[in-house]
Amino acid sequence: MKAIAWFxxxxxxxxxxxxxxxxxxxxxxxxxxxxxxxxxPNPIVPHKAALVLSPQGALVEQLAGDPFERAVxxxxxxSRPETLLRDLVDVVDTAAKDKRIExxxxxxxxxxxxxxxxxQELAAAIQRFRAAGKKVFAFGESFDQAQYYLAAQxxxxxxxxxxxxxxxxxxxxRTFLKGVIDKxxxxxxxxxxxxxxxxxxxxxxxxxxxxxxQESMAWLxxxxxQYLAGVAKARGLDEAAxxxxxxxxxxxxxxHRGDLATAALERNLVTELKSRREFEDQIKALVGxxxxxxxxxxxxxxxxxxxxxxSEPLLEGDRxxxxxxxxxxxxxxxxxxxxxxxxxxRLLRDALYDDTIKAVVLRIDSPGGSMLASEVxxxxxxxxxxAGKPVIASMSSTAASGGYYIAMDADEIWxxxxxxxxxxxxxxxxxxxxxxLEKFGVTIDGVGTTPFAGSLRLxxxxxxxxxxxxxxxxxxxxxxxxxxxxxxxxxxxxxxxxVAQGRVWAGIDAAQHGLVDKLGSYKDALDSAAEKAGLxxxxxxxxxxxxxxxxxxxxxxxQALAARVTRALVPEHELFSNARRILAPxxxxxxxxxxxxxxxxxxxxxxxxxx
Length: 611
Known about the structure:
By secondary structure, this protein is α/β, with parallel strands linked by helices. The protein is 48% helix and 17% strand. Keywords: Hydrolase, Membrane, Protease, Serine protease, Transmembrane, Transmembrane helix.
C-alpha cells in the first residue's frame, strides 16, 4: 500500500508541477502579448522633416534611480524629468548627416538647466548642425536663463507676443539649519580642514560667511562670463549689452509698461514676435504638413533617437570605454545617479578585464562625498593605468572635492571652462542629542572600561578626547588629499595647499592653477583617449554600464506594466503632486544628509552647485 501511495503521490506531484509550469508559460505569453501591445511601435522618420529638440527636465550625465523608479514616474505623468546629455548630442550629430532632416526646431519649454558646462556641450552640437548647412529655429512662450542660452544658438528665435526673456544672472543660496538645531537643542560637532571648506557652516551659522561670499562670487563671476560670452557670440551681440539687460531688467519692464516681449525684441534677443500657430505655419512651409497632427512634419528627439539606434550596428573591435560617475560618492553599491564605491569600481574593473577596451574616459559630474569611497575608486583608476590602459578624466558641470579626488590620478584631466572643481578639503559632522532628550526627561548615564567607551553615542555629549581624535583624523585626511594631488600633479605640497583649503574654482581658473590639464569638451577628452590608445580618429565608444540579463529585463517590463496599471486604478491626487514640488528643495537637502554613509563620517564634499 505504501508503494502504491508513494507512486500515486509522485504522479500527482508531477502533474501538479506540470500544471504550474504550464500556467507560468501561459501567463508569460499573455504578459509578453500585453507588453507588445502597450509598447510603442518603432518610430518612422519622415522623408522630409524637422527634428524637434525638446529636452525635459535637467540635462544630466546619467539618469537617476533604477528603471522601475523611472517607470513609476512615467506612469504618474512625471516622465522624463531628466534628459541624458549624450542622447541629445548624439541626436543632433546624427541628424546633421541625415538627408531626411531638413532643419531643427528647439522647443525648450520643458528644460530645467543642468549647468553651463552641459549646455556648452549641447550648444556646440547645435553649431555643428548649422555648420552642416541646416537651419535651426527656436520658439518659446517664454525663455528662462538656461533655455535662452540654447535658444541663442539658433539662426532665428521667435517669442510669443505675451512672453518674456528672463536673464537674471547667477546666484548661490544655501539652506542654514542653525536656527532649527538650536530649537531642538542638538549639539552638532563639526570638524574640518581647509579654511574655505564651508559645507559645515549650515550647522553652525544662520548666514553665509564673508569668506564664503568672496569665494562664491569668484566662481559665480567666472560662470557668468561664460554665459555672457556664449550668448553674445551666438547672437552677434556685445556682452555688455546682455549684462545690462539683466542688470536693468526692472527699469526695462517699467519703461515698456510691462511689455517684456517687445523689450526682448528691441534688445535683439529675439528675431520676431509670433504665436505658436504662426511659427508652426512658417515651419510647415519649409518641411510640409503632418495631416494627422495638423502641424509641421517633425520628429521628436526621443523618437529620432530610437529610430537611429535601432539601425546602429553592433560594436566590434577595439574601442574607448566610458564610465559615467554622476552624483554623490557613497559607500557600497549605489543606483544610477549616485556613485558607489562598489558599483563604480565594478565598472572600472570591467574595463580593466575587457581586452577590447584600450582606453577609458571617466566622465565626472559630482560634488564628491565619502572619503573612503573616493579612495576605493581612485585605486581602480590606478589599476587601469598600471595595466597600460590610459585613463582620461572628463569633467562635466561639477567635479569638486571627492569628484576631483577620483579624477586626479588620470593621465589627463579635461574640464570645461565652466566646470566647478577643486574644493580640496575635508569635513566631518557628528551630532549629539543629549540636550534634546533632557527636554523630555530622558537622561543617559553609565560606566565604561576606558575614557572613550561609549563616547561616540549620539545620545551622549562628545568629550574632549573624542573631539581631538576626530579633528586629528580630519587633518590627516586633508594631508592625504593634498599629498595625493601633489604627487598626481607633480607639484609640491605647498603649491597644492595654496590652491586647496576647500576653495572652489571654475575650470578656466583651475587650469591656470594647474589642477586640470586642458580645457575642452567631452568629445575632446574622447579624442585624447583614442589618440593615447593608438585607435586613430575613426574610433568606437562603448559605455560601460551595469549589465541586465533577460530576467532583470523581464522584471523591469513587468514592473513598468504594473506601474501603468496602478496609475489607472489609483491616480495620484494633484494635491500630493503639488506638495512634492513645493517641498522639493527641503526634501533634496534632507535626502542629501540622509545618504551620507562614510564608515568614518569623513567627507570630501562640496556644497557648490553649477547654475
